[in-house]
Amino acid sequence: MDNSLLRTKKVLSVCMETTAGGRNYSGGLGALYGDTTRTMYRLGADFIAVTPIYKNGYVRQYVSPNSVVDEFPEQDHTADYEDTGIRLSIPMVQREIKVKVWRHKVLKNAYGIDSYLPENGIFADITNNLYGEYGIGNYNGEDQRLMQEILLGVASVKLCEHLGYNFDILHLNEGHGVFSSIYMISQLVTNKHMDFYDALKSVKRKTVFTTHTPIWAGNKSRHIDMVMALGGNFGLSREQMKKIGCFNDEDDQFGSTIAALRVSKIANAVALRHQATSHDLWKNVTGACPITYIDNGVDIEFWQDEKIRKAYKEFSYDGLMKAHYENKLKLIEEIKKRNNIQLNPDNIIVGFARRVIAYKRVDLIFTDIERFERLISKYNIQFVFSGKTHPKDNGSKMILMRLLSISERYPNNVVFLQDYDVTVAGLMTKGCDVWLGNPEIPLEACSTSGMKAAANGVINLSTSDGWWYRSCRYGVNGWTIGESRSQDAYSDANHLYNAIEQRVMPAYADKKAWAHMMLASIYTANEECSTDRMCRDYYAYIYNAPYFE
């Protein structure tokens, strides 16, 4: 396919996390950004990705029956990145913070930044771990997280200046990156003596924004005095900053998403249903840009098993089933190695692996434990779970401990794989038979893990939210659970039990029918869910979108 579209705009893309290298990701946002970066590079797009890379990365997490242990071991950036020798100076916290610039060894469009330089004193630890959970010196974790966002915002723009990369479009992935735009506005006001509103319009012409979080509480806000104190205004006045990021003149909470909506020419949600949710969430923000949608995707080249790909291209049922069985054995072997539990490859494996948070309802299947016991007894179903949660989310840590407890109670039917990461995700999205997703509707933005599973012929069983709302062909490439809106947990669990008993298990018993569903699943992923398609969509619909005042 002709990829000349991907060179029509020079794009600077900023994000707080990535799977391009190291433990610099916490969940779906980082996975998406890593896939996007890889795909843009492979397709030859005129695109630069900038992300902080963290001394201790994101948490490694180990669950016991009574606690969840969080560890932040130091990581070696040189495994994936090389020091460019570039040093940038970032004005913040009433001083100049020095930033080291790294470049990815393989993905030459990917740059990492970190503050771990001795001349920064205590501020060398700004980028010690993703989202700065524990603070530095007299600054708490919230201060540190804001420092990281400011650092990313300014460093990304200054890096492009250093490289002579005159970008046409600034892409903010989540509201974290909005300080790039605010810094650009401040430079026009200070250095070009431009009127504030003219500067805002000028930056708005070249900024676009992807919103990922469909709940108000998940969209970061902090008191405007905190933003001013740490230097996130870059010389702009308090009143000007309020015009950018506060809901109205009486509000003192500076919202990163509100700011991003006001400094962008267009925003996009990451799935069709998510667009409607985002409209409802932000409809009362004055001065906000339009919100369209671009369906997320996954890097098929990275996530899809080669033997699965070959069998699919040859339309070989036998080849497909054989390749899947081999992947299933690899997953079972890893489970035996980690957990000393031997699963049966002839029995169905249902997988669930995601960031653990209440609305994703990892434990929905256990709502009616007697019904669950009848299911596993009758059908010998094997459930494999993996996931980690935010280090400070104690409620979700309780969910993880319950999950571990249940796995110990039913060792032949429930497995929990510790310390979820890209490696575990790869094994599970290839080796499971069914991919379970039961988030509370409409709180799931997309859920790309299901796309990765579909790319490997793993059948999705999910509530009608995120990507599955649009891509499910019921009974052909998978099934939806329940109704168009979530009800109480007991009702939704009952829909799940019925779906497994009445739809999934009869289909699994008919191997030829199951192979047909696998082929349909792969077709869906290849045609609808690839980052190849997604990246072209971004250039066609977002980067080249017109600006209307």
Kindly state the percentage of residues in helix. Answer: 40-55%
Fraction in beta strands: 15-25%
Distinct helical segment count: 19
CATH superfamily of the largest domain: Glycogen Phosphorylase B
- Total count of domains: 2
Q: Could you say what the CATH topology of the largest domain is called? A: Rossmann fold
CATH class of the largest domain: Alpha Beta
- Quote the distance from N terminus to C terminus: 35 Å
* General form: globular
Strand tally is 19
**What is the radius of gyration?**
23 Å
CATH architecture of the largest domain: 3-Layer(aba) Sandwich
Class from helix and strand fractions: alpha/beta
Q: Report the biggest beta sheet as strand number plus sense, adding barrel if it closes.
A: 9 strands, mixed
Strands side by side in the biggest sheet: 5-6-7-2-1-8-9-12-13
Mean pLDDT: 96
The unreliable regions are none
Outline the structure in words.
This protein has helices at residues 28-42, 141-163, 178-191, 196-204, 224-229, 238-245, 256-263, 272-282, 300-303, 306-313, 317-339, 369-379, 394-409, 422-431, 449-455, 468-471, 489-509, 511-528, 531-543, and strands spanning 11-14, 47-52, 60-63, 68-71, 81-92, 95-104, 110-114, 169-173, 207-210, 221-223, 253-255, 266-269, 291-293, 349-353, 382-386, 414-417, 434-437, 459-463, 478-481. It is of the alpha/beta class. The chain has 2 domains: 4-52 and 138-297 and 533-543, Rossmann fold (3-Layer(aba) Sandwich); 300-529, Rossmann fold, CATH 3.40.50. The strands form 4 sheets. It has a 9-stranded mixed beta sheet, with helices on both faces. It starts with 10 loop residues before the first strand and ends in a 6-residue tail after the last helix. The model has no long low-confidence stretch (mean pLDDT 96).
